[in-house]
Design a protein that fits this description.
The chain is an alpha+beta fold. It has six helices and 14 strands. Strands 2-1-3-9-5-12-8 form a seven-stranded mixed β-sheet, sandwiched between helices. It has a three-stranded antiparallel β-sheet with strand order 4-13-14.
């Protein structure tokens, strides 16, 4: 009786995703941010994730984001991790965002305004936005309408599906209001069918660096 040949072909190994770190900044960045950025990049490499980092030095945030997006789309990286130069975050922040397996996912954080340090995340539509709050009772993940780009991971398919410009400072005359470039991006992404997710567990470990660390519960650490 003839023996059956066993198929010894091994399945092709799945390549880990790659991340381009994008930092819009002025001439100088916060030292604590630089330390955490270096540690986060090293942690990505230690976990087998190919990584590179791009800075855009300039005072116009909209132009900086467009320039960095162009660099990203002209590369072969899978994700862009936006991180602002005045943020403090866990060294495993990008890996945790990556594990969520979402096209757009990031952290909510407070504005650097004292004593009225409201959250940057928002729900609703222009003219009817309400603050999106992070607290001890927040679930791990929540859908959000506006996710500012201080710490957000975006898959390249989002940019490839959307037409340019991806970022624009937009004035709505009917509401007499000007919208920031990250609001413009979020609105446009939703119009193209993408969901925007807030990682609330990570949001509780994020700080906006100012006169002190503006964290989610405004406690002093």
């Amino acid at each position: 009786m003839a023996k059956k040949n066993k198929n010894t072909t091994k399945p092709a190994a799945t390549m880990p995703p790659s991340i381009l770190i994008a930092v819009p900044a002025m001439e100088m960045v916060n030292a604590e941010f630089a330390q955490h950025l270096a540690m986060a990049a090293a942690n990505l490499v230690a976990n087998g994730i190919r990584v590179n980092c791009a800075f855009n030095i300039g005072s116009v945030i909209t132009i900086a984001r467009r320039n960095l997006t162009d660099i990203f789309l002209n590369s072969d990286f899978d994700y862009i991790w936006w991180v602002d130069s005045d943020m403090k975050f866990p060294v495993d922040a990008p890996i945790r965002l990556l594990s969520r397996q979402k096209d757009i996912v990031g952290a909510n954080y407070r504005r650097r305004r004292f004593p009225n340090a409201t959250f940057t995340g928002m729900k609703g539509q222009p003219g009817n936005y309400v603050e999106f709050v992070t607290n001890d009772d927040s679930p791990d993940m929540e859908l959000i309408d506006v996710l500012p780009h201080g710490c957000v991971l975006v898959h390249r398919r989002v940019y490839e599906k959307m037409s340019q410009p991806h970022y624009l400072q937009e004035f709505l005359p009917e509401l007499n209001v000007e919208l920031g470039e990250d609001i413009y991006f979020c609105r446009k992404a939703q119009e193209h069918g993408f969901e925007i997710w807030c990682d609330q567990s990570l949001s509780k470990e994020i700080s906006h660096i100012g006169i002190f660390h503006f964290n989610y519960n405004l406690c002093v650490k």
